[in-house]
Amino acid sequence: MKETKGLQIPFMDDAKKSELKSAVEALLFASGEPLSIYELSNHLDEKSKTIELIIQEMMDAYEKVQTRGIKLISIKGKYQLVTKGENAEYIQKLLKKNKRQSLSQASIESLAIISYKQPITRIDIDEIRGVKSESALQRLIEKDLIKEVGRLEVPGRPILYGTTDEFLRQFDLRDLKDLPSLDLFGQDDDEVTSVENENNEKYYDVDEEKTINNLE
User: Fold this and answer.
1) Domains contained in the chain, number
2) Which residue, 51, 98, 99, 162, is most buried by CB atoms nearer than 10 A?
3) What is the chain written as a DSSP string?
4) Which of 39-53, 61-75, 164-178 has the lowest average pLDDT?
5) How many CB atoms lie within 10 A of CB 104?
6) pLDDT category, 172, cuts 50, 70, 90?
7) CATH number at residue 49
8) Which pLDDT tens digit goes with each residue over 72-94?
């Protein structure tokens, strides 16, 4: 981001500015993935320059309050809310207790696809989800829920992903045969939710219709 400290957001009262900051914070929190200025401005129907200045003010505010447990950072031109390093010990205890609670929607979708379609490449996962899955896959690897199981023998030899024994333990499965059959899933969210409840949450709450359809 270019230097913006000291610049004022033009033609915007304090109430509107506070509303925008709240909306940006909510989007970053809900996303779980880094978002660009363009993505934020597009979702909020605001000019990119306005969002850029809002982001800078937010970053300054987070830095000033030392008692906050999270901070706003920039990663390759995108922005993300992350926890502070000094809280890592407490977070690790929480995630170790229940890894499923710490998974983002993107990670849950990617994990569901891998569990049913393995071995599978990242490109194939992206095609099923309709968006890039690189960050989600990295998180799943870090949590020992997926691993590299080989390489596809085509030009470039892309990595093939599969689930781990830790995946089976976390979701109370003896083996992959215990996964609910995709034939059980209907076309609407109510049916998916019903099957999920019947299987004691062994299915991973992938409620996006496109993802379910593409798995079949």
Assistant:
1) 2
2) 51
3) ----TT---TT--HHHHHHHHHHHHHHHHHH-S-EEHHHHHHHHT--HHHHHHHHHHHHHHHHH-TT-SEEEEEETTEEEEEE-GGGHHHHHHHHHH-GGGG--HHHHHHHHHHHHH-SEEHHHHHHHHTS--HHHHHHHHHTTSEEEEEE-SSTT-PEEEEE-HHHHHHTT-SSGGGSPPGGG--SSHHHHHHHHHHTTT-S-----HHHHHHH-
4) 164-178
5) 15
6) confident
7) 1.10.10.10
8) 988 878 898 988 888 888 877 77
Residue 9 placed within a domain: no
Q: Is the model's pLDDT at 177 over the cut of 80?
A: yes
Q: Is there a domain that residue 3 lies in?
A: no
